[in-house]
Amino acid sequence: MQEAKRSGGAPAAGGGTDAGTEKPRRRQARGERRIAQLLDAAANVFCTTGYTAASTNSIAREAGVSPGTLYQFFPNKEAIAIELGDQLLRRWRETYGQAFLPVHTSLPLAELLDAVLDPLIEFNQANPAFAVLMQGSDIPGHARLQHEKLNTGLVERTEEILAGYLPDAPPAEVARTANTIFAIFKAGLGLILTHEGAERDAYTKELKTVLHRYLSPLVGEAGC
Amino acid sequence: MQEAKRSGGAPAAGGGTDAGTEKPRRRQARGERRIAQLLDAAANVFCTTGYTAASTNSIAREAGVSPGTLYQFFPNKEAIAIELGDQLLRRWRETYGQAFLPVHTSLPLAELLDAVLDPLIEFNQANPAFAVLMQGSDIPGHARLQHEKLNTGLVERTEEILAGYLPDAPPAEVARTANTIFAIFKAGLGLILTHEGAERDAYTKELKTVLHRYLSPLVGEAGC
Amino acid sequence: MQEAKRSGGAPAAGGGTDAGTEKPRRRQARGERRIAQLLDAAANVFCTTGYTAASTNSIAREAGVSPGTLYQFFPNKEAIAIELGDQLLRRWRETYGQAFLPVHTSLPLAELLDAVLDPLIEFNQANPAFAVLMQGSDIPGHARLQHEKLNTGLVERTEEILAGYLPDAPPAEVARTANTIFAIFKAGLGLILTHEGAERDAYTKELKTVLHRYLSPLVGEAGC
Amino acid sequence: MQEAKRSGGAPAAGGGTDAGTEKPRRRQARGERRIAQLLDAAANVFCTTGYTAASTNSIAREAGVSPGTLYQFFPNKEAIAIELGDQLLRRWRETYGQAFLPVHTSLPLAELLDAVLDPLIEFNQANPAFAVLMQGSDIPGHARLQHEKLNTGLVERTEEILAGYLPDAPPAEVARTANTIFAIFKAGLGLILTHEGAERDAYTKELKTVLHRYLSPLVGEAGC
DNA sequence: GATGAATGAGGATTCATTCAT
DNA sequence: TATGAATGAATCCTCATTCAT
Fold first, then answer.
1. Which nucleotide is nearest to C30 (CA to C1')?
2. Is the Cβ pair A184, B135 closer than 8 Å?
3. Which nt is closest to the CA of C31, judged by C1'?
């Protein structure tokens, strides 16, 4: 689950390929594991109780470590959320990120939506904390977390794709459209994640329908 | 500071205007005022800090009463949120509710959307706590609050209207569509409330566009 | 020990002499008692462990109340020290303060020293926390506490008396002399309070000797 | 940052000059360096935050080593303070100590004071931790640290000098006088170290004045 | 009904110290 | 030796809730 970073290599001292950059760590094998444990635990707790109600003690307990251990790796609760967001975004990019580059060339809208949404939804199902942090209507002073990292990343990506389809639209309008798309996506994602089985699929389809109908006039496709 | 309301008066019984229907709760006028004070304060505090971070003490302070007084009217924090939701829903119905009944007859979609959304948005601007409680991504065990009251109320209303337009659709589909509409509405409302001036208007328009494009095929109108 | 504030009067509502000024309190009889208890406890704990090592929980425990109760009256540890300092200074002034006014007229130095030091030493023996707060080499950011309250009060008083004796000295020099006197006093007080019986008396005498010899040339008295 | 002093020369034992007595601790050169590092760091931290508020972790961090390393050389925080006091006293003796032996022969008081105080003040300016540990009004159970080491050392030295001047005084009185002198010195030192430039010099002079006036009658000199 | 005092468990965070590597 | 991870009790402080007046 958390072993995504250093696949190969000796467990203690990181092989020999990039010797030199590894000096200031050393005994961090254990530490890295702990960090992963803690982030996992935080993801669970954030999903279960939300950010505000999540206590650092409960995260530590969930991770099976003492409170002090948590604070050896994170200076406070916010830092945990930030690092978790970063990690999820990184993981997202590593997992699906590359697939996006070719996407926005000039696919038909329906296929574009499939290509973009399916991986996102899949990733959110596998990492429900992602949605929690994106939504983040819980996190005090959340603009920092939300817009600087998770959302900005995705909104900007949306803007880029959008700009490819709407080269003539004024940037403010593109931004507004991207925000709207993203808000709709989050709303639909909420419905998808709170349903299961056939209903979940139906809501997935519905989300695509909404976005297709919203966007087809913009990109000059027949929506009817 | 806090004893400003204890005018004179007998401890148990006061006026006499509405005797008859209201007999056993005469001197509850004071109580009603207290409740209104407290709910107002709660609305402010919930908007400012969110539900979880709002403390009952801060609500009492904001209301200018003591913590003990708060607990004379509400058994716990959750009850405050529930009652606030009820009150807002009641207020909503009192203010705009009647106007809805005739609405869903057979207006063109665009006008229906105006007729439904404009009051809702207006009401949410005036009562931002409404949005907070609707969104409610803060409130632990929120399904109870959300779906039992605010949302259900509005979603059901949406379903009713929708059913008027789609008499042949299976109920499950109507429900799903209503949920989708409502989710989109909340998402758009979030954008609207977090922007101001021209941007706010633009997002309002965008929300209507989204819904119009989503719904026009359903209701058999030309959307293109 | 802490009943110095409202000697006479009914326990609950403070007699009738100053009716009118008592409104905004009401149930604070209990509260005042608690505050006194807490300040007493703080005095003990500060004396025993010093400011930094004193924990708010230990103060509450010493006072026989829960931590929460402490925080109903004091926002934090510093506030306790400040209020304790204020209370001690107030008590000092109430107890001996008036006696000082006539003092500095034109007593012979030896008698002035007796008149000033004996009450101060006596008061410090009765209220050892006074010395702790004066010394205050413990309290972080202590300039606020020390110089604004306890010390300033006494140093200024020293300056005034001194200025009476040295009308021609430049103010900077008077200030320096006052600081020196006060520092010597605190040093001597430390010795006095850490000894007992005959030794204590001997150190008291020694302190007076030091100050007498230091000051007699200044005030134009034969010191030899 | 912290290894700035290890210029040439082994500080205590290292080198090779006195081989023979030091045989079994060859490779302790590293250890000595570590200890010096740690004590330096402790001195800084104690000066900055005081003993109680200084954390062993912060000392280790300031020294650029891990907490575990610190505990390889010191069993606990108190031991660090004790060893630091010892080291400072040793350093004091190495630097100025010898000069004292001839001092107390029979200098005039004013010159004696210069001869004793100037180096002490200078040393304290260079090693502010010395004053912190001497004062030590922070250190819980400080009698141990204070009187067993720093202070005793200096007080005893004062007693010796004093006894040279007052051969007929009873020892208890000599001890009391020495304590008084030392207390005055510490008080004056506090004033000196908290002022700068001309004020610092003025307070230095004032301290000498105080002591001169206090002592001249004792040693049979004309103080007027 | 109203007040404000009282509670104590729980929150985030730190710290002296120990342990595995 | 040195490291840095680990601990858990203790720190300050808050909070929902209750109680005496």
1. E5
2. no
3. E5
Minimal Cα–Cα distance from C7 to chain D, Å?
A: 36
Domain C23-74 is in which class? mainly alpha
Residue A76 phi/psi, 5-degree rounding, is -170, 180
Residues B219, B112: Cα–Cα separation, whole Å: 12
Query: Is 1.10.10.60 the CATH number for D11-74?
Result: yes
Domain residue spans in chain A?
Answer: 13-74, 78-215
| Interval C205-222 mean pLDDT | 91
Q: Is domain D76-224 annotated with CATH 1.10.357.10?
A: yes
Looking at the domain A13-74, which fold is it?
Answer: Arc Repressor Mutant, subunit A (1.10.10)
pLDDT at A38: 97
A78-215: CATH topology: Tetracycline Repressor; domain 2 (1.10.357)
The set of residues, in sequence order, having a beta carbon less than 8 Å from that of A149 and lying 6+ positions away, is: A82, A85, A86, A89
Long-range pairs for A205-208 at CB < 8 Å and ≥24 separation? A206/B176, A206/B177, A206/B180, A207/A117, A207/B180, A208/A110, A208/A113, A208/A114, A208/A117
State the pLDDT at residue D95.
Answer: 85
**How do residues A72-93 score in pLDDT, each as one tens digit?**
999 999 999 999 999 998 898 8
Write the CA distances from B110 to A213, B113, B157, C39, integer angstroms: 15, 5, 18, 70
Split at pLDDT 50, 70, 90, the class of A215 is: very high
| CATH class for the region spanning B78-224 | mainly alpha
Architecture of domain B24-74: Orthogonal Bundle (1.10)
Q: Is the CB of A26 under 7 A from strand F?
A: yes
Inter-chain Cβ pairs, chain A and chain B, closer than 8 A: 86
Q: Is the pLDDT of residue C41 over 50?
A: yes
